[in-house]
Each structure stands twice: as structure tokens, then as C-alpha cells.
Amino acid sequence: MSTTESANAAEIRAAIDGWAEAMRQKDASRVLSYGTQDCLVYSLAPPLKASDADAEGLRQWFSTWKGPLGYRLQDLEITSSGDVGFATALAHLSGEKQDGAKVALWYRQTLGLKRTDGGWKIAHQHESVPFYMDGSFKAAIDLDPASKADWNAPSHPPMAGVIAYLNVEDANATAEFYGRAFGASEVTRKYAEDGQRLMHCHLTINGGALMLSDPFPEFGYPWKPPEGFVLHLVVDDADFWWKRAVEAGAEVTMPLEIAFWGDYYGQLRDPFGITWAIVAPVKKEA
Questions:
Q1: Could you give the angle at which helices 171-182 and 238-248 cross, rounded to 10 degrees?
Q2: In Å, what is the CA distance from 150 to each residue of 58, 118, 153, 154?
Q3: Matching InterPro entries, A to Z (predicted)?
């Protein structure tokens, strides 16, 4: 690296350090002072393309957080040529939202800078996270710099049928309850970086898959009361399944009895507001 390139890298690093500190202090005016007036932003949040010259919009976003932000860059690499510079890093954002939600995630950060009369300024920001290639298209916000993927590992076979994916207020408690009430066995459980909320939980009940996750309102997935659907369990011994669920704490909303269409049928509501139907064919007398 030439002397000029070394000097450029040091100046660019100083500008990025100042910008990052302004982010931590939630100082919108100071953050924008490190950018050009026409700075182009591809951020994690909508829209697809934006300008970072809106101080009021930045202040509004900062106001959704309690106290200072946790913001740092890891593996920062800087290159420059003439009056143009590029920087890449892994960024870590953490903090507490006004509603009490804890946020902690890693994402990819790319900055394009240009030298101006006022020093090096950020002209382009690009933030991104990978997404899971399993068909769910869920953002992979549970990754960190130590995460490793074995690309040579065999893929899981596709699961048949339509699989319910429930967004519940407390996925940990829900999964534990389903183990007691419905004999659920756990396939996998993945926590968010706050170590409390579940990004993904895969259960097997009665031979079928059921997926759970906690709400993540900061990423556009707030909790909503469940309505308009029933989880239908077709079993051999309805009395056994019914008794176990009721003893675990499920509420009877429709008694288990022979329905007009001929099946042995009843409905329960679990403590998380989900309605379950337990059904079995009526056994014919020998």
C-alpha cells in the first residue's frame, strides 16, 4: 500500500469511527454530517432505495430506542483510489426498543465514500442480511461472525403437506406446553441473539410438523391474536389425547362427543389462544 493509500485509509477510518459514534449517541445531525447530501441508502428497512439526508426521519427512528444504541463494526476493510473509497464490515446493532423488546443482530455493511472539500463523506450505504434457502425466505438474523455452514451436508428431505407456522407470544412456553398437552417432540430450536425469543422452533406432533416463533415487531412481525383457524388432530384414541390435553391446562370449548357427521370430535383452546380439534373415527361394534 502506497503512502497516499495509507493516508486515505486512515482518514476514511477516522470518518467511519466518527459516524459510528454518532450512531451510538443517536445524534441525527452528526450522523448526516458524515454523509453527502445525495447519499444513497439501501438499508435493512423499507423502502428498497432511500436518501439518508432526512434528519427528521432519522430522529424518529432513533426515538424508537431507549438510551444509546449498541453499534460496532467488525472486520472493517478499506480500499481507496484517488478520491473514491470503499469499506466493508460486519455490523452489530443492539439495544432496547421503547416497547421493551431487546434487539441484537449482525448484518453486512458496505460504505462507498468520496473525498470532498470537507473531507471524506459517505455517498452510499448498503446493508443486508442473508436469508435461509429452505423455502421459508426468513431473514437469517440469528447468524454471527462465528456461524459456520456445511455446504456439503445433505439437505433435509422435503416435508409433505401444509405445515402450520404459528407466531405466538411466548414460543418457549408454547413449545413446553405442547410437549405436555399433545406429546410434542422437539426437532430444533433456534434463539435470537437476545437469548430469550425463539426465531424458529420445529415440533413434531402426531407424526406431523408444527413450527413456532416469537413476535419480532422491530422487523415487521408483531404479535396478533390468533383467529379463524383450527389445528386438527386425527388420532386413534381421542379420549387419551383429550384427557392429557385437558390435564395439562387446555380449555374445553366444544365437548368431545359423536358429531352429527359421525366422527368422535371436540375442540380445545390452549393457553396461548390456539384452537385445537381432536377427532377420531367412531369405532364400530364387532
A1: 140
A2: 39, 46, 5, 9
A3: Glyas_Bleomycin-R_OHBP_Dase (IPR029068), Glyas_Fos-R_dOase_dom (IPR004360), NTF2-like_dom_sf (IPR032710), SnoaL-like (IPR037401), VOC_core (IPR037523)
pTM as predicted: 0.54
| Gap between the Cα atoms of 22 and 29, Å rounded | 9
Residue pair 80/12 in contact by the 8 Å Cβ criterion: yes
Q: How many CB atoms lie within 10 A of CB 148?
A: 6
CATH, range 164-281: 3.10.180.10
pLDDT in tens, 77-127: 999 999 999 999 999 998 888 877 778 889 999 999 999 999 999 999 999
Coil/strand/helix, residue 12 = helix
Question: What's the fold here for domain 3-128?
Answer: Nuclear Transport Factor 2; Chain: A, (3.10.450)
3-state secondary structure of 220: coil
Q: Are 35 and 16 a contacting pair, CB within 8 Å?
A: no
Q: Cell for 48?
A: 428498497
Q: Which residue ranges make up each domain of the chain?
A: 3-128, 164-281
Cell numbers that stand for 51 in this block: 436518501
